[in-house]
Design a protein that fits this description.
Elements (H helix, E strand, L loop, with lengths): L13 H16 L7 E2 L9 E2 L44 H11 L19 H12 L14 H5 L8 E2 L2 E2 L1 E2 L10 H14 L9 H21 L7 E4 L2 H11 L9 E5 L8 H10 L2 E5 L9 H7 L4 E7 L11 H9 L4 E5 L11 H4 L3 E5 L10 E5 L1 H4 L12 E4 L4 E3 L13 H17 L1 H20 L5 E3 L10 E3 L5 H10 L2 E2 L1 E3 L4 H5 L6 E3 L8 H15 L5
Parallel strand pairs: 5-17, 7-8, 7-9, 9-10, 10-11
Antiparallel strand pairs: 1-2, 3-4, 6-12, 11-12, 13-14, 15-16, 18-19
Amino acid sequence: MNEFPGIEAHEPSSEMISRIASRLVAEATGGALPQAVAATSPVTPARAFDGALPPATALPTLPPALPEARAGAFPVASRLPAGTTAGPAADPYVGLKSFVSRIRGLDASPGDRSAGFHGHDPSLEAAAAAIRAAARGIDAGPARYGAFDVEGVRRDFPILHQKINGKPLAWFDNAATTQKPRQVIEAISRYYATDNSNIHRGAHTLAARSTDAYEGARATVQRFLGGASPEEIIFVRGTTEGINLVANACGARFSAGDEIVLSEVEHHANIVPWQMLAERTGGVIRVAPIDDRGEVILEAYAALLGPRTKFVALSHASNSLGTILPVEAMTGMAKAHGARVLVDGAQSVSHFPVDVRRIGCDFYVFSGHKIFGPTGIGAVWASADAQGSMQPWQGGGNMIRDVTFAKTVYADPPAKFEAGTPNIADAIGLAAALDYVTAVGRERIAAQEHLLLEHATARLGAIPGVRLVGTARAKVGVLSFVIPGRDVIEIGRALDREGMAVRAGHHCAQPSLRHFGLEATVRPSLAFYNTIEEIDRLAVAVERIARGRGV
């Protein structure tokens, strides 16, 4: 029987969980903190957890009521089919309840009590009541938004209407890059056909039009992310350059012994720049581990935070496992120790709504090509406060106010961080992509992708011999898998012969795969233009391969 009326269809998402967790904690525990717990990172020894989790007020402020019906709009693999290796079955709302328990060290599972944890506390009844109150009336799932016209959407993507090896193309490589709607293609083409000019200092009509379009794109990104001002948006080539910008621009404030906390699910782009910074400054990398579902162990993460924590860098969603991290709560915990926080949004912005001020981070970074925009463009959202701590990374034109041979006076942000001629056309294309996603509706997209993910998880998980890797309770549409005895590259090639494009390899996320004893997986990844029929084709082909008839 459903314990939480009003949200029968879906498990609440990690975003919803992180928004309401601090309020529930206060009600469930009466402000009590857990006893000391020892937690250790598999990569770097963690501090003994002294119980000093931030108080509820240190976490991002919660509204009196949830502003949007987002529960269920986030793709959540809440139920796994027989044949998967995700561990024991859980009740549909264990994610919500266990998060509340983990954040304060309460043990919601009497059979799994670690030393130092309290047993099941009667005050959790208050949490359950608060959960019901917070979620009451939320109508989760696609029914809220009406039927999703996937064929209408697909008509906007010319590349999808072709055959590969005589079979209709099924694009399942969306975590690597997404396809582009005609609105984006036309926006870029129209710019080059009618408005092409360098920006800002030209005293002619085309320069004015080009400048207006470029700065208009900046404002579009700001609105899409929920920022306060267009000046908070810095254009870069993509997520990788954005993280390098932040690491280098903030690096002057690092000293020997300062600590950078990452998670085990990070993409190499959110590992290597911080390693380079640590090597230059004598800093220390600490890593929050994941469990065998692919979820960050929050007790261990909390134990890593302390007075030497200078920076925390987290993926919003994992590109290799699909895990959605509870970045609001993790940001609040880091902020309680005075750390700066960067969130890598490359795998999240195309899948569900993002609000950077609600998250409470200092930096949010993403790539245009991951959200149906062009390659070679991305953005860093940097709060005004965070920008004040940044030094220019690259020098040249556009980022200056005055130059002499004795001294350079830098321009104000964001120009201060955009040296040289920018990628004007692709910034305009990125704005067109964000406008397209907004017009379709981010909640509608998330609800549709939720259905696709659940169907794909059920179909692939039911195939004998297929091992799904990454079974977090809150996921974007990533389905990593292996078939023991089958080479992942050969599986990818076999699927290509059937017209299906998947990624096969380590996905630039080797530490996350090595947690599962793997060097590579096959990774189909979904977008809202994929169809149930395509997923069924994929399942049939994978089953044939697993039976030894397709490779």
